[in-house]
Amino acid sequence: MMTPYKNVHRLSSILAYEISDESIRIEFVSGAMRVYTYENVGKIHVEAMKKCAIKGKGLGSYVMNNESQFIAMREKRSTPKIS
Q: What pLDDT score was predicted for residue 79?
């Protein structure tokens, strides 16, 4: 079940989130939905996003500041290995 994002500063692009053991699912104001997992972006990033989500502060900035790294990590993991 999605939890509404507190959005302390009222300027966030985040609407809601859902925390699981090894992931966080984020719903953006734009309607986009993304799932960040230990596997696709790493445990450190997921845990940092969970902390921001619970505080209601900094989640949108964290995602925005790291999105290019997240995309690169996902692409690297989805590229098949050539033998």
A: 60
